Amino acid sequence: MAKIDEYREIILEILTEYSSHKPAYGDVEVELILDPERDRYLLVHAGWSNRRRIYGCTIHIDLKGDKIWIQNDGTEVGIANVLVERGVPPQDIVIAYNAPYLRKFTDFAVG
Predict the structure, then answer these.
(1) Domain presence at residue 23
(2) Residues whose CB is less than 8 angstroms from the CB of residue 91 and which lie 6 or more positions away in sequence, other chains included
(3) pTM of the model
(4) Is there a domain that residue 62 lies in?
């Protein structure tokens, strides 16, 4: 359980850092959505730019069992890489947006 508590802290630190990066264009808010009870963590962009609606989930991470499941990653660096840099072993990270049959070809967990 201590490992999962540590993962929650790391995820919160990373998402808080990413949420401080405001878009250089439009009237777009960066929303940090945290549900520690269900272990769901999201970073969402919502607003307007040039009379066009902007909405999207940039990052979505779930904790399932003893693994970190990356459901969506709209970053350039890759949240999995950031997690590894912060000390999370690759075998505890599932790249959930990859098809299950492709996951075995990565350095990360299959599920």
Answers:
(1) yes
(2) 108, 109
(3) 0.92
(4) yes
